[in-house]
């Protein structure tokens, strides 16, 4: 396949506009974010094609304002010649979908990439978050809420877990990490394009709506009142019920004010000598216990 000439200058207007998205302020202003790596880009392109989203025609402005209703479409693809030859399906998809694409040199890739060893492909995508009321409804069975979760790796891993467990949505409160942080996006391994994500809401708003829609609200917290997640029936906790799980900060857990917004607490028992579990690990246990019980 004959490829177009490569963009070799980091000062290219297209490159400079994309590089801006490495900063949170620009992501918010432009309504876009960067997706890096073959796995995540593949998921973004597949979602774009499945939803039959329009591409960005030549002459379209290089930014999409935050007031534009986002659909999570791929706006532009940057790919090295080596990566294009290894992933010909990416080139075919962007052509079929009329998505703007560029061959770039390694020097340009270094400007666009937030990783040390990039795999040669970066996509510019529209933000993909949705409204809270669109995901917490009478059909929702399992909702994952992250309250004051600050580590991007933890947030991304939990989104991946929620996707794997078949959760209906993940909600990140306004005090949590930016979902479009490059490390968060990479940590989702493409699951960001599978499970609906809500951002920028308060934990009180989430818990109130969840309860109004008939979901029980459970805090993942090892306090004196917490149920044992491995023996919930002993203390009357029903894990077959529709549930919104709330996970707190990595360092201090759930604040008392947030615990009071929940119906009950549950904790993962420690059988060995470890002081505690990593947040994402504990979240995986809780989310899967609900998913398993709801499917029994």
How is this structure best described in words?
With 296 residues, this protein is an alpha/beta fold. It folds into two domains: 13-126, Ribosomal protein L30/S12 (60s Ribosomal Protein L30, Chain: A, 2-Layer Sandwich), CATH 3.30.1330; 132-294, Alpha/beta knot (3-Layer(aba) Sandwich). The protein has eleven helices and eleven strands. It has helices at residues 13-19, 24-30, 38-50, 81-86, 88-96, 106-112, 152-164, 182-187, 203-212, 256-259, 279-294; strands at 32-36, 74-80, 100-104, 121-126, 142-146, 169-173, 197-201, 216-220, 227-228, 243-247, 264-267. The strands form two sheets. Strands 7-6-5-10-8-11-9 form a seven-stranded parallel sheet, with helices on both faces. Strands 1-4-2-3 form a four-stranded mixed sheet. Helix 7 (152-164) links the parallel strand 5 (142-146) and strand 6. Helix 7 (152-164) packs parallel to helix 11. It is elongated. The N and C termini lie far apart (51 Å). The relative contact order is 0.13. Residues 57-69 have low confidence and may be disordered. It comes from Brevibacterium sandarakinum. One of its GO terms (cellular component) is cytoplasm.
């Amino acid at each position: 396949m004959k490829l177009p000439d490569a963009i070799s200058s980091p000062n290219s207007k297209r490159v400079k506009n994309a590089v801006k998205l490495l900063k949170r302020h620009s992501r918010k202003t432009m309504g876009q974010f960067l997706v890096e790596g073959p796995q995540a880009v593949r998921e973004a392109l597949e979602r774009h094609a499945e939803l039959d989203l329009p591409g960005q025609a030549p002459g379209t402005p290089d930014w999409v304002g935050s007031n534009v209703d986002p659909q999570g479409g791929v706006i532009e693809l940057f790919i090295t010649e080596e990566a294009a030859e290894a992933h010909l399906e990416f080139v075919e998809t962007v052509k079929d979908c009329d998505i703007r694409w560029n061959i770039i040199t390694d020097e340009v890739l270094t400007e666009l990439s937030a990783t040390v060893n990039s795999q040669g492909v970066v996509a510019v995508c529209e933000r993909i978050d949705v409204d809270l009321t669109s995901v917490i409804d009478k059909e929702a069975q399992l909702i994952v809420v992250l309250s004051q979760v600050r580590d991007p790796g933890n947030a991304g891993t939990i989104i991946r877990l929620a996707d794997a467990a078949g959760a209906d949505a993940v909600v990140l409160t306004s005090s949590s990490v930016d979902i479009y942080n490059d490390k968060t996006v990479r940590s989702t391994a493409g699951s960001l394009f599978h499970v609906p994500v809500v951002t920028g809401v308060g934990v009180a708003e989430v818990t109130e709506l969840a309860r109004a829609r008939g979901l029980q609200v459970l805090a993942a917290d090892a306090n004196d009142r917490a149920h044992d997640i491995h023996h919930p029936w002993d203390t009357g906790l029903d894990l077959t019920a529709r549930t919104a799980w709330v996970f707190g900060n990595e360092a201090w857990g759930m604040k008392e004010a947030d615990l009071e917004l929940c119906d009950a607490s549950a904790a993962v028992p420690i059988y060995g000598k470890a002081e505690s579990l990593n947040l994402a690990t504990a979240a995986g246990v809780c989310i899967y216990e609900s998913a398993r019980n709801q499917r029994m």
